[in-house]
Amino acid sequence: MTQQGVRWTADQVLALAPDAASRKAGSKLGAAGPWSEAGSSDEGTVWGLCKGSGSKPYQTVVDIADAAGPAYKCSCPSRKFPCKHALGLLLLWAADEAAVPPGQAPEWAAQWAAGRRERAEAKKAGAGSGAPSGSADPEAARRRAERRAERVSAGAVELEQRLVDLLRGGLATAEQAGYGLWEETAARMVDAQAQGLAGRVRELGAIPSTGPGWPVRLLEECALLHLLGRGWQRRDRLPAGLAATVRSRIGLPSSPDGPPLRDRWLVLAQYDTTDPRLTTRRIWLHGAVSHRTVLLLSYGAAGRAPELALPVGLSLEAEVSAYPGAGQPRVALGEQFSAPAPAATRPPGVTTAQAAARYGDALREDPWLESVPVTLDRVVPTPDGDSWQLADADGDAALPLTPAARSRPGLWRLVAVSGGAPVRVFGECGHQGFTPLTAWPEGPGDAVALC
Amino acid sequence: MTRTSAPVDAPGADAWEGLVTTALLGTDRRTPPGAAPGPDAPLALLDAAAVETVRRRAGLRPARAAERPQAAPEDVRPALPPAAARRLAMLLADRPGPSGGGRRGAAPDLTELLPQWLALANARGFAPPPQVLPALLDAARGRTDLRPAALGFAGPRALWLARLNPDWRFALRAAPGGGAALPHLQDDDGVRRLWQEGLFAERVALLSALRSRTPAAARDLLASTWGTERAEDRLMFLDSLREGLGPDDEGFLEHALADRSRNVRATAAELLSALPGSALAARMAVRAEACVAIDHTRSARPSGTGGGIPGGATQTTVTIAVEAPHECDPGMERDGVVAKAPAGRGERSWWLGQLVEAAPLGTWSRRLGGRTPRDIVALPVADGWQGELHAAWCRAAVRQRDAAWSRALLGDPSAPEAGGPGAVSLAERAKLLGTLGAAERAEWVAGFIAAHGLSEAFQLLGVCAVPWAAPLGRAVVDALNIARDAGSYPWSFSGVMGLAERCLDPSEASRLDALLAVPDEPENASPGAGGYWAEAFQRLVTTLRLRAAMAEELGAA
User: Fold this and answer.
1) Considering the entire predicted model, what is its pTM?
2) Burial of A249 (0-12, 13-18, 19+ CB in 10 A)
3) What is the predicted ipTM?
4) By 3-state DSSP, what share of chain B in percent is helix, strand and coil, each rounded to 5?
């Protein structure tokens, strides 16, 4: 592996931080921390002693060789993971070769790293030999899947009944019914092991309070939910790709079984969405050769950063394999052939009209699609009354920003980067408008993350 | 995006409207278009709505573009080095912790370093990366003390941005030169039009911008409308002449001495007295000289007081006699002397103070027998007038920025009675120090701290140039060390500690290493103080290292 040869960028390190406070504390320790005896080995171990308030300095060691993400160990009592010392050490390593010179790991660091790698090897070997035993009982697996399908079907029938009741009485009643009703239905969908349905149902409850035009949005969502339920009930008669899309929209688990696709992947955007239980990280990649834009999802339990961190502007040579379902961008990261390294390349862009058409085309394969990933080229962020749009520099068409994007601080970064000049913008283009995620200035310059 | 308006979809739009209406009312009240009433009506409605929803979404087209914004002016400064750009982002992301929370911990306070970072970056003439402008403007919005440096660094694109976001309006008002709201200063017509028609804030901005470029033009502009301005406005405008004040301004200021408003008159007089060659200064000199003289009649008398008189210029005891003015005549009032004394002060000493303060300091050497400022300050003053007289000289030295007199009035830093002549308060001393060169200032404060410790040094340290000169830094560190050994808690010195974090030369960090350990507690120490001191010193060292890194990233040696 070449992983160890390349020192990371500070952004790459900071993306590992579990929260903003750790990011801050880590960066303080990175430049100015009282580090001593720091070093890094060819095997991908970075270590150092950090003087804390106690008499004995903390021993911090990080193993960056693992493609699945770095591993950390620190003798400090912090329960954050990675702790600020690990972040600080990596920042120091990234910024200053003299402060963390290559060398031989001391006993305490080498021991830990060796033990870790041994365990990893053992696990890999175990996984290799254990795979057949996992599927040793295909009959049982089939029965489990069947039982689950039955439960989903029952849930879908119940949901349909709720929708019928709602439309019989009229949407106007939904405004008074409020949240509770839908929460209850959502809970039933969770019981039916249909997380996808549950999520959509929960959102229904919120629509009546979203301001003018809510009846239209509510009817749209009800209709699409109905469409999904119907799709599930008739999945046997759907083309295989669409049936897979329905299954994944319902929320049934699937595994990436597409053929591995090797490419030079440029990281277009990385952003997290959090709810009380889960942090979801979305990473958009663009393949230099395949010209495909794919999505990596990574999850972290509440308060923990998802393990995978690929800051915008890096690129890596790797294999990905797609999850099943027509028109689904989601892939899993397979083998990596190079460490992520900064790249000056930019994805090719299209006009606003082409972007809108792309969304329309994508609906053919997945009618529930909210948006598609698109890079717009030569657009100018333009104020339009209370709102903003991305206007073609060389035409008179424009895509409005989504209401959510309008209130994010990223909007002003986008406007600042543009300064009235055309920029290239990657984002998600859908029926609510365009959500800018990354921008490149007209002239030379790095990608600017907007999310 | 707009819904497509192709003719083939026109019925679609109607159909959708029909579906929404039916859905709102409920199928019990209204049958969906194209469906039979009955129990299946809701399902038919949902089917139709699903088709319409996907069809409408698939048919979306871009909207018409609104008018594009004007391009931002170009920033010609070189871009910030990448490491410095990252540091800036980090400083801007740091929000101050909850205020008043006792202990400050061992981690540096990044927000306190932002002003220094900005000053460095401005000195090096770098331009910020555009994407940090929003954070920079937000920071400047929250902290008025940051505004000049932050907006200066933010540059022309920030003003362009501020015009698009009402949250950042302040930048247009506060910007030096008022941003693009101001016409080009060479554009005489534009300047005159804005001066005549602009809002008050715009006019103040225009005047100060013009004053900083061409002082005379600004004065002429002000003179052109002087008679018609309101009194409060005249006061503000006059105040902006403080910058770039010169002998050429005398005529205009003399004219303003006859102003209807008392405050305007006082300001004009103050400005004139800062011009030692002005006619007003000469008139004040004549008046002041009449009040202060060498008293030869008393010189034979032995000195009764304990004030040690340096055996310098004279062999006999020479005394300064003061005869305060008996009245405040209209001429004095016209020259800015305020006739009515504040409550609790004698009229005559009040008038005296104002005369001496406004008289050129050069007067005294001539008047008092060719003595140097140091000799004059050392002379005893008869009848308890010393306080009044020295205080007035201090004000004059500050106003006229006279280093020789400041030096004399400051006296020796290690002298007892907290240094210098007793009449001089800490605040006055801080002002006097401001008239001295940076090195001399630092040396004096270092001497003061060595002799008197840190308890009164805060104000004096505030006027010293950053980073502190080596002798000053050493004096502060030594004094902190002494304070620790004395067993008090570090937060008694948190003000000085905070200053040290920001002002100590980063190269001093290595000298502090010995202070990081937790010392053994002496018997009479406050419990736990040693640990807190170690924490405070650690914080100091970490901050210094951070500052060194900051400077290095910005390419400042």
Assistant:
1) 0.76
2) buried
3) 0.82
4) 60, 5, 35
